[in-house]
Amino acid sequence: MTTPVCTSADSSQFTAYVRTKGPTLLRTARALTPNPADAEDLLQTALTKTYLAWDRIDDHRAVDGYVRRTLVNTRTSQWRKRKVDEFTTDELPELPVTGQPDPVEQQAQRDALLRAISRLPPRQRAMVVLRYYEDMSEVQTAERLGVSVGTVKSAVSRALGKLREDPELELSVA
Which residue range or ranges hold the RNA polymerase sigma factor 70 region 4 type domain (predicted)? Predict the structure, then answer.
């Protein structure tokens, strides 16, 4: 059994319709699916279905509604047919032990350390940041801040002592 196809006169009407309404229909398809390529495929499928039904549509002024309904129905059918990658089992699979630290815990420790550094006096904070975050030597840090190397050594030593005693950091290390 063959599907009836539009006559040449109907075909030219359909072509004119697609040229006129194509961009609007594509916007509608993009509203139905987040991926632009999927939206183009959806529109193509809906237009193919419309083309096959073109001679059965009595009122060609109502074609917009027909195509939009076809878009929605086609998208719904695609959604229902989508592949499900989840399978039920009686037992939960064991998570692999990678030996890597928990990224959430690492971020929590990083945040606690930054808060502790922010509580240091400005001069000590600057020295700690330059020494350990900017990876500058004691000499470079002293030159940058315009102080002696001994001042950098003693200030950094006091700052590290305060960080070791910070209660928030003690909780996150344990």
Answer: 111-163
